[in-house]
Design brief:
By secondary structure, the protein is of the alpha/beta class. The protein folds into two domains: 85 residues, 3-Layer(aba) Sandwich (Udp-n-acetylmuramoylalanyl-d-glutamate--2,6- Diaminopimelate Ligase, Chain: A, domain 1); 210 residues, 3 Solenoid (UDP N-Acetylglucosamine Acyltransferase, domain 1), CATH 2.160.10. It is built from four helices and 40 strands. Strands 8-11-14-17-20-25-28-31-34-37-39-40 form a twelve-stranded mixed sheet. It is flat, with a radius of gyration of 30 Å.
């Protein structure tokens, strides 16, 4: 769908520098932009590429000037996120239930919801307005799914899972499976029944093949606005705060609590029963074994405050040279401490 530069600027809260009447029909990266395309540049390197391209207009957030028409915004990255849906709108899913879907007689499905092929909605489950269940989604008994949610193919919600509004869960994720709870009994691992549930609040997005286990008694909670990447494991009774970012292959062990705006980078492992404060950041591949106070940045395995870990890494880098110097000093010391004129004892031969 075509838009004038002026319309784009109004949509992203920007200022036009150049011809506001130009029409753009597509959005493209600078290295592939053609006439009629809008592109963006968040730094000088990207801007140089955009200027050399055939793009009709450029979203920028710096003082750059150009012969091309510019839309100057406070943040080119944010404007990029806001303008993309204009050119790539979400697919429209018509209301209704596919003939192959299985809906329990006690379930309540809003008339505006879309239930795709081979979906299952269990007893006493609730599906809210305009929510979309793509193909082969399983919603267990007594689940509650809010308004405007989108569940991609093969998502599984175990019994009594609760989703807020505008929750997106990508393909293959399982929400509400048994927590990993066992107790030793006569030399065998006896299963502890996991009778809690999962509560996911508004505006959460969960990537593909994520597992969120239900609580042993109470709920496992994912806070409002939190975004979880692919292949993440959230264990039973974990409580994740609001607007957190949990990157791919993270594992959070049972009963750990994360504050608001926490960032766990890729492959971070967090031990159980810990507390990470608000605005904590943990670098990739770190192993968290201790509580972390508000606002701190940690990394390493075991993870420590970033400055402490950096000093240790610098010391390790200097270790080979230090060992060489110590060996040289020992050699010199041995040479200077040998008795002067020392000779071998006489032979025992007669």
């Amino acid at each position: 769908m075509p838009f004038t530069v002026a319309e784009i600027a109004r949509h992203v809260g920007g200022e036009v520098v150049g011809d506001a009447t130009l029409v753009v029909q597509r959005f493209a990266p600078a290295d592939r932009a053609q006439p009629g395309d809008l592109t963006f540049a968040e730094n000088e390197r990207f801007f140089a590429r955009a200027e050399q391209s055939a793009a009709t207009a450029i979203l920028v957030d710096g003082p750059m000037t150009s012969q091309k028409t510019l839309i100057r915004v406070p943040s080119a990255r944010l404007a990029f996120a806001r303008v993309l849906p204009l050119f790539f709108p979400e697919p429209i899913h018509p209301a209704g239930v596919h003939p192959s879907a299985v809906i329990a007689s006690t379930a309540r499905v809003d008339a505006s919801a879309h239930i795709g092929p081979l979906c299952v909605v269990g007893e006493a489950a609730v599906i809210g307005p305009r929510t979309v269940l793509s193909a082969q989604v399983h919603v267990g008994p007594e689940c509650v799914v809010g308004a405007d949610c989108l569940l991609f193919p093969h998502v599984t919600l175990y019994a009594r899972t609760v989703l807020g509004n505008r929750v997106r869960i990508h393909a293959g994720s399982a929400i509400g499976a048994d927590g990993f709870g066992y107790v030793q009994d006569g030399g065998v691992h006896r299963k502890v029944p996991q009778v809690g549930h999962v509560l996911i609040r508004d505006d959460v997005e969960i990537g593909a093949n994520v597992t969120v286990d239900r609580g042993a008694l109470g709920p496992t909670v994912i806070g409002q606005g939190t975004k979880i990447d692919n292949l993440v494991q959230i264990a039973h009774n974990v409580n994740i705060g609001e607007h957190c970012l949990v990157v791919a292959q993270v594992g959070v062990s049972g009963s750990t609590r994360l504050g608001n705006y926490v960032v766990l980078a890729g492959q971070v492992g967090v031990a159980g029963h810990l507390k990470l404060g608000h605005r904590v950041a943990v670098a990739a591949q770190s192993g968290v074994m201790n509580n972390i106070p508000d606002g701190e940045k940690w990394f390493g395995s075991p993870a420590r405050p970033d400055r402490q870990t950096k000093r240790q890494l610098i010391a390790l880098q200097q270790l080979p040279e230090l060992l060489r110097r110590v060996a040289e000093l020992e050699r010199q010391l041995a040479a200077t401490s040998a008795p002067a004129g020392k000779t071998n004892p006489p032979s025992a031969k007669s």
